[in-house]
Amino acid sequence: MIASSPRTAVAVTGRGTPVSPAPECGAGSHGVRERCGPDAVNGSRAENRPTGSRDPAWVSVLGAAPEGNGHGDCPTGTVSTIDSTISKRHASPIRRRPPIPRVLALLLGVVLSAAAVTVPRAETSDGSGTLLIEDIVIEGAVKTTRETVLHNLVVRPGDAIAPDALFHLADPLVDRGIFVRASVHTRPGSAPGRIVAVIDAEERGPQLRFGLGYEDLTGWYLIPAELDFDNASGHGETLRAGVRFGYRVGGVVLEAGRAAGPRGGLFWRARATAETVDRVYFYQDTEIAHPVRRGGLELRLGSELRGGTSLFGWVAEQSAEADSSARIYQKNEEEGRKAGTEVPFEDLPPGVARDLERQHLTRFGVGARLDRRQGPELLQHGVAGTVELEGIAFPDGAFGRGLLDLRGYLPLGRGAAIAARTQLAGVGPRAPFYERLYLGGLYSVRGFPSQSLSRPQGETHLASGSIELRAPWVGPAARPTLAGLVFVDTGVSWSDDLAAQRLSVGAGYGVRIRLPWVRYLGVDVGFPLTASPAQEAFHVNASLGWTY
Q1: Which of 76, 128, 250, 536 is spaced 20 to 30 A from 499 at the CA atom?
Q2: Where does residue 147 rank: exposed (0-12), middle (13-18), buried (19+ CB within 10 A)?
């Protein structure tokens, strides 16, 4: 059985996602060879080439060039000098000074010789080795506004940029779906060290996509069809309409919005949904799936600030209605219960049966996120955290919800890394069972079935912690093809008396394999170290991506 956690859908698009660092001159760190010499600044091009996958490992192959060899092929920045030794004559005690013209000629020869073997660097406006972008010109774009292009770039006119970074100037425009592909070349500016960056772009049209994802309490789902009208008006907005189906969820989703730029700024998202979700809980040693129909509209607004900080808020109007019956989700051979068998209303848990009437929910929330993580995959280091507070009102009353999620990452060397996570969450006692908290399963406490460590009606408080030791098995640590991990998870959920609850602990191991369009697909095998409601010695979970 597969447990659940919030994950983002992975859509297959016609574009790649280059995230590799800019290679140095000559042979790049990922097999890229860049054109060097005078035309590395003015005249050379770097293209983002779609490969039909979202694998961030793909890179563009630029013009091949030889390694720097001191003959003008690649700037080295070193100054070669010529050591001239004038032998002294000991045959005569009289030291004769060379004629002044000969001395001047010798010094002039040394200077000219050094200049001849020194590779000249591109002139800069401030001597720092960077270039000043005097202007950014967009060619090939018909509907996309200049403001949209600048909003999605890391640099703006008037900023300085390293020559190598010019090759990646347009990457965000492709990564964010503004253009299908984009290439960059330069023109001389008004003075030495100043350039005009020219972006040759090809705009996107409507696309039909499919994808795969994982979401909190709904598990895996497939997006068999999604119409993508991103950047339809030329203002960089997202506009998507699709359906999704999984073994716990099915419905339609409409979404529109605009992301913040790489330099931060405002972002917004509007989302409309209509779907049925199976909420899973344990009752009398049996795993039960209870259908809940829900739908509504949510508007989220926020701003990304400096230092990896984001502030956001949301308002939503939703409806929810739990079905009057449920079904057995996993068979229980000891009790003679078969999967798919209906659980009628009179056999439902009392804490669930009371929440079956239709509810209209109005939600208001605020949150903040801090993300100081740096580096790719197992080389990632730093911390990240999220805090959210929400108020939910319905006709019979109201309740609140709060969440604190903290994560830390520490590389250990030789590709090994430690990742840790802790969560604290709470919800008001008037919350219906489908708004309450459940413990157990993937992204929670592995080694136990999904939501099995909480009562059928859920709990009002939850605390959990996890730690993983990760290491690459095949491929580089920055982006391994195959990686392994060992983990220890622990957690507790409660509603009234925390002291009466027992801490649950699970441990185990897992593998992650990198695939072209889903990034990482994995399997975790967890062993319960404390009492489990399920009669099993271990529990296997499938994972999309890293657990956190």
Answers
A1: 536
A2: exposed
- Return d(Cα 253, Cα 55) in angstroms, integer: 25
Going by C-alpha positions, the residue among 354, 370, 376, 536 that lies closest to residue 431 is 354
- Helix (H/G/I), strand (E/B), else coil: 242: strand
CA of 121: how far to CAs of 169, 265, 269, in Å?
Answer: 21, 36, 46
Q: To 10 degrees, the CA torsion angle through 442, 444, 446, 447?
A: -110
Classify each residue of 503-519 as buried b or exposed e, where b means 16 or more C-beta atoms within 10 Å of its C-beta: ebbbbbbbbbebeeebb
Spatial separation of the C-alpha atoms in residues 121 and 125, rounded to whole Å:
12
- Helix intervals (H) in 310-396: 350-353
The residues near 83 (Cβ < 8 Å, ≥ 6 apart) are: none
Q: pTM for the complete prediction?
A: 0.71
Retrieve residue 189's tokens.
Answer: 């500016």
Q: How many CB atoms lie within 10 A of CB 65?
A: 19
Task: For residues 30 and 23, give the distance between their C-alpha atoms in angstroms, rounded to a whole number.
Answer: 7
3-class DSSP state for residue 375? coil
The CA distance from 157 to 159, in Å, is 6
What confidence tier does 503 reach under pLDDT thresholds 50, 70, 90? very high
Q: Residue 501's pLDDT band (boundaries 50, 70, 90)?
A: confident
Q: State how far the alpha carbon of 395 is from the alpha carbons of 198, 428, 496, in Å.
A: 58, 15, 25
pLDDT digits (tens, 9 = 90+) for 180-238: 899 999 999 999 989 999 999 999 888 888 777 766 555 667 788 889 898 888 888 99
Cα distance between residue 432 and residue 428, in whole Å: 9
Total residue length of the chain: 548
Please say whether the beta carbons of 542 and 512 come within 8 A: no
Q: Are 135 and 157 in contact (CB under 8 A)?
A: yes
What count of other Cβ atoms lies within 10 Å of the Cβ of residue 134?
Answer: 18
Alpha helices in 121-203 (DSSP H): 146-151, 171-175
Please tell me whether residue 367 adopts helix, strand or coil conformation. Answer: strand
End-to-end CA distance of the chain: 19
Report d(CA 508, CA 518) in Å as an integer. Answer: 24
Residue 226 to residues 25, 212, 222, 275, 539: CA-CA distances in angstroms?
Answer: 41, 11, 11, 15, 34
How much is the CA Rg of the chain, to the nearest whole Å? 31
State the CB neighbour count (10 A cutoff) for residue 362: 15
Rounded CA-CA distance 55/475 in Å is 15
Strand partners, 282: 287
